[in-house]
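dumping this here before i forget
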Amino acid sequence: MWRYQFASLYATRFRIPLYSAYVLYGCGGDCFAQELVTAVRDNTTWFIEPQLSNFSSEEMVMPGDQVDVFGQNQAVLSDYEGNICYIPGQLNPYNYHSTYSALSTFTLTNAVPFHPEFQQAWQRAQESLKDLVGHMSGTAYFVTGAVADVNSTTISHGRVSVPSHVWTAMCYKRRRTGWSTSSFSLGLIGQNGGSNDAINGGIQVMSLSELTMTLKQLYRTKDLRIFYRDCPCSRRRSRLMKHKLQLRLNVHS
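structure:
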């Protein structure tokens, strides 16, 4: 049955997603089709969204390399071909989802240009965060974003903007207890470039309030809120989980 998998804000001006909101599900009961996800991932297959090009279809389609047909409002594969400095990387990570949701993340509307060194570090950080909360009985809500503006570096002759930073905010809610002392929040942010710290890629672990303040500076705004009511949760629990994630990544705030 067709259903929404996650929500993203896509900037046709920059031809990248600015943020994506999703819930951590993992493989769940859909693992019978995991081989399909693996095949798509290993072949680095990318789909496009025809509705952004005024087509009636709401299904993601292949191929994604027809600039004249699909490239007016979104990136296509040819935008990344031959570029050794940046590669397409998922903003919303496939392995946070069940199989069919995971397949939906392999679209170029979910891709931003990543520096290869930073992408490896960012994937490690996302995997560590997933491992930290994946076994818990509550619900982990995520928003992952990319910082870009009119002055951003671009690829493909100015067609696709390169984000200066990539960030993730998480709000964990414990089941059956509402916003209890077991609820907590966390943040990650990193600068999208090479020659960062060899261990963690320059990625910082932050509290949600610290991340919000940093993003206000990067986005040059005083009005920024990621979660409803700023994710009411235990400050003590948040500090503890922040420390645990720092230990996993060998980083400091």
